[in-house]
Amino acid sequence: MQKAAKVEGMKKVTVLCAGTWGVSLTILLAGNGHQVSLWSKFKEETEPLLSDRTVVRNLPGAVFPEGVKITNDIAEALEEDTDLIVMSAASPAVREVAKAAAPYVKEGTIIVNASKGIENGTLYTMTDIISQEIPQARVAVLSGPSHAEEVCRQIPTTVVVGAAVKETALFVQDIFMNKYFRVYTSPDVMGIELGGSLKNVIALAAGIIDGLGFGDNTKAALITRGIVEIARLGEAMGAQYETFAGLSGIGDLIVTCTSSHSRNHNAGYLLGKGRTIEEAKKEVGQVIEGVNSAQAALALARKYQIEMPIVEQVNEVLFHGKSAKDALADLLVRDRASEYSSLSWE
Which of 53, 200, 223, 256 has a CB 3.0–4.6 Å from the CB of 290, allowing a cystine? Predict the structure, then answer.
């Protein structure tokens, strides 16, 4: 049996960015008895938390802890001997936040990435970006089926933390884990990152299916073939196949494709109803990570010469004006194929 890391007593944790996920993780970590600082660049995110901690934006029922330090000054947030930094920025902002934090991060500090996405242009994962911008840090990733709206209300959740060094993963595991937030560990950082990023693209397609009025059979087929596409690319990039059968793979994919909390599913639903992507973004009102990752996912598929037909059709709908109904039809009438090319008759 794996032993827990020995994290003695209270630790100092800084959460970078006060979106719904960052706030939810702040509530969790403070509840675990740690001394938490929450930073945001935007006063419109921090001022409501300072004035009324019982009304948390986008997190109904959440209560923000009194003991959390809230600041708009990143130097102040990181000035003390921080034991752990949590990166919870929306993926398009991770590089900017990492650059801002870099001068204040001490050698060997652990940063756990809780953001999901792939950077357009570079095709870097979020841990790649953090490692590049803050080379003095030890970087881990936290992912899995974990909607902020449920985590902040202590609804049981299970996730996985990945790191290149086992002791790093065990340290993060012990800081986060409690009776309602179970944390597993894994060495497959790449697999965890890809599962968490690409599931958002598939979730857009799942929402489109619901918007078009199709049923459970259709969505189950999409989820199943979606994880095949993600795993196919992941293996080509050096990830382990088992990861995509786990929490950051099929687990996160299922919840993101089916939940009313999912911004990606909700945006896809609006696309299926005939909205443009700009109209969908405005109506959802929060960052839709799948839109940001869709082009990068397609670029990776082409770079590694991997077939990803669902990702291709999502890009056609998002960026090339193709109707959702035509995209689904084109997925269904492709050439005949075996389910798994690795299986053969004797």
Answer: 200
